[in-house]
């Protein structure tokens, strides 16, 4: 099991500036317990919180996890122990430490099995339409929360705990993994609006699956790139113009489609866009952000450069068609003029 816990005299909230007015406060939110609420207008791209974990653990059988957490807790100073024990527990019973972990742990990386809990970040409630993003920086071992859209004073700060999909799928997964019934703005919509959102989210999942299909990228890259364009429009519609990390991933997929067929010019633009989104949602110092920045400057450094064909071969500086934005987008996504 991993252990990267807050040490005795470590302040787990980094770079707090006591002379500046606080960005948020913790308070009780109807139906959700405690949550964080903005105390001032927070511009898009603001780093709201960065914290080191209090405790880090892999999932294990309840008995072994409880024993592990108990021994890790003993290593913490009294204040950190109190912070851990004060966190919400949706699974009270014989394994209280494991219950706190299951209620609060955020994965250390998008596909990681390792989870961590934080004193302040773990007070942030879930929304299916979040205004902030949580990111684990595997270089600095710090979790960050960035505003992915402008947040108004008085608005609750929210992140997403789930993997998307239509509301029935999200509800089942949130109930199973975190033990609660979601009461966010999307899930509380009137049925007709929720149905429209569900249709968009199902289509988003379907397009995402198609774009990830390597055989399609190999044989029909033009179709895959068109799917990227459709997905981008849908993401913007469903996430109120602020799709956050989902857009960074989409632009990276488009980068890969172009680079596997030798198109350095478009690949470079897509990598640049992916970097811009990451910069806004997670800062420029994550390994993922640094990698896309490097690829924007040097797209052929990607290991799959011309892996499928050279039929789209361009130089990075190929003059793109189109004097205006719309023409540029059509050039970028290889859509007919
Ligand atoms: C990580 S904690 C968040 C902070 C928590 N509200 C507290 O009081 O400490 C996760 C728990 O908050 C509550 N919660 C978070 N998002 C919610 C939502 N959208 N709807 C209802 N409850 C929510 C659930 O009880 C969930 O298990």
TrEMBL record:
Coiled-coil positions: none
Protein name: SET domain-containing protein
Region spans: Disordered: 1-22
Taxonomic lineage of the native organism: Eukaryota, Fungi, Dikarya, Ascomycota, Pezizomycotina
Domain SET: 21-162
Endpoints of the signal sequence: none
Pfam families named in the record: SET
